[in-house]
Amino acid sequence: MQVPEVGSSIIRVLHQHKLGKAAWPTIQQGLQRSFVHSLASYRIAQKASPFDRRATALAWHPAHPSTLAVASKGGDIMLWNFGVKDKPTFIKGIGAGGSITGLKFNLLNTDQFYTASMEGTTTLQDFRGNTVRVFARSDCCNIWFCSLDVSAKSRVVVTGDNVGHVTLLNTDGKELWNLRMHKKKATHVALNPCCDWLLATASVDQTVKLWDLRQVKGKDGFLYSLPHSHPVNAACFSPDGARLLTTDQRNEIRVYSASRWDRPMSLIPHPHRHFQHLTPIKATWHPRYNLIVVGRYPDPNFKSCVPYESRTVDVFDGSSGKLLCQLYDPASSGIISLNEFNPMGDTLASAMGYHVLVWSQEKVGPERESESQ
C-alpha cells in the first residue's frame, strides 16, 4: 500500500485505532488519502474502439471487477472482460436513432441487462441479443427514453422520457404509475441505494426533484425541488445514500446532504459545458471513498481557465469540494464524458468519444523499482 506522507501513514492510524486513540472516520480518511496518492500512478492500461458512433453509457459487472458493458449512440452494446484475451461479446444496434441512454446490469441475473433507448423502449435483454421483456414503449417517434434505474431489493424499474414523464414498473413489467414529473426532458433518474423508496429525478427544466415512491400522487407530490441555474445532466446518490451529487450542463457540480436536502452543502465550479455532439458529462461517486469523479471540458470563459488547459479526469473531495487529483494521458486527450469506478474501486472506466478507456495503477516491475532506488 502506498502512503501519502509519513505524518498520515495508514499503518500509524491503524495502530492508533488498535490502541483506542483513533476513531473509524480517521481510518477512513487515512485510507482515502492513501488511495488518492495512488492515483498519481494510474495509467490507461486498456483501450478499445468498438463502435462507429460515440459511447453513451457504461456499467460495471457487479461481480466481475474486470468486466464492463458499454453502449453506443447506434444502439450497439459490448460486454468486455479486459482481463482475458477472448473476443468481447458484441450486440449490433439499429444505427441512427438507436442510442442507448441508460444501461444497468440485472442484479438478479447478471447475464441480463436493462436499457433505455432513443428507439422508444425500456427493455430487459440478455447478451445473446434476445429481448426478455419490454417494460415501456413510446409508440411515437417523437418520444424516447432518456434515463433508467433499477432496484433489485424493491424489484422496481424506473425510466424517464424526453418530455418529462417518469414511469415506475415492477420487474414483472406491471406499470405502477406514469406521471409527468418535469416540464422538459428527464435526463436522469436514481433510486437511493439504502432507502430505495427515495427517488431523485433531474431535468433540462433546471430542477432536481426528490420523491417518496410510497406516496407519489401527482406531479406536485415531490418532497423537495432543487432549483439549478442551468439544465441538469445527472443526479446520483452516494453509495451510503446520504448525499446527492448533481451535474449541470454548464459549470457547476453540487453536493446535497440528507441532513438538509433543500440546500447544497457544497458548490464546485467546474467546466463541463454541454455540446450537442458530445455525450453529456456526468459526475459520479467513488464506490468506497467520499470522492467525486468527472471529466473536464475546458472553457475559455471559465474563471480559472488557463491557456491550453488539458481535458483531464478530475477527482474532488466530496466534503470540501477540493480538487485532489487529475488523470491525463497525452495519447488519449479527447473530452472524457463518462467515468465509473468498478465496485472494488481500483479500476476506472471512461468513455471518450468512440473510445473506451480503462485506467489502473501502473505496476512497478523489478527493473523500474531498481531505477527508482
TrEMBL record:
InterPro entries: DDB2 (IPR033312), WD40/YVTN_repeat-like_dom_sf (IPR015943), WD40_repeat_CS (IPR019775), WD40_repeat_dom_sf (IPR036322), WD40_rpt (IPR001680). Keywords: Chromosome, DNA damage, DNA repair, DNA-binding, Nucleus, Repeat, Ubl conjugation pathway, WD repeat. It comes from the Eukaryota. One of its GO terms (cellular component) is nucleus. Its main location: nucleus. One of its GO terms (molecular function) is damaged DNA binding. It is found in: Chromosome; Nucleus. The keyword DNA-binding applies. Transmembrane segments: none annotated. GO terms for biological process: cellular response to UV; DNA repair. WD repeats lie at residues 179-214. Belongs to the WD repeat DDB2/WDR76 family. PANTHER family: DAMAGE-SPECIFIC DNA BINDING PROTEIN 2 (PTHR15169), DNA DAMAGE-BINDING PROTEIN 2 (PTHR15169:SF0). This is DNA damage-binding protein 2. The lineage of its organism: Eukaryota, Metazoa, Chordata, Craniata, Vertebrata.
